[in-house]
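tool_call: predict_structure(chain=1)
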Amino acid sequence: MLLAKKFNHEGEWLFRYRSYLPILLLIPGLILYLVSEMNQENTLAQEWWYVYSCLVISLIGLVIRILTVGCTPDHTSGRNTKEQGAASLNTTGIYSIVRNPLYLGNFFIWLGVGLLCHNIWFIIIFCFLFMFFYERIIFTEEKFLKKKFGKKYRNWANRTPVFIPKFNGFRKSVVPFSWKKVLRKEKNGFGAIFVVFCGFNVLGKLVRGEREFDVFLIGMAAFSFLFYFLIKYLKYNTKILIDKNRY
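tool_result:
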């Protein structure tokens, strides 16, 4: 099989299951975390300032996703998994400084969680596998976009980096920011971050035989859980989250 064909085949498969890839990568991390907590080796991960530093990194990833999704037209920058799709090519706003801002956001979200494990080898392997998987996904997506948008895509790709932002190329978004779209699309990410951090904290304390859980993380996890179902209800049972000005 030609290398390009192999990359495309792997990319199509990974594209369909990309939402689950970070979870699979972090399962070994959780095991390492719990073992170190059980042996009381991971003292740094119990320091509040370290945990909240990791949380800030994850929230930076969420902010990147919010800024991306909020300034894009409908039917672009979505969570579709069955097939590639793009009604238009996004080249302004955050897309003017990096070609894959959603994946950049994902990287920071899951890096923050991975850092909780406080295992340098796991973090290195996690970063390597994340890049390995997303390299193939990006390869497949770019093949689709190049075929659909042709010269327009090639011109944009030639001046915009794949993953590391180039801020001096910023162009203001032509699409106004929409909180309604953000709430529809990013409710999952907001909830996942606090549920995962809360889960690490509670499980870590339990295996150490402690019961002094982080009240803030538990409260935010509970809030994000209720918030998720509220937004889901509004999305499917009302028109409150429909942005009539979005195209």
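agent: The two ends are 41 Å apart (CA to CA). Proceeding to next step.
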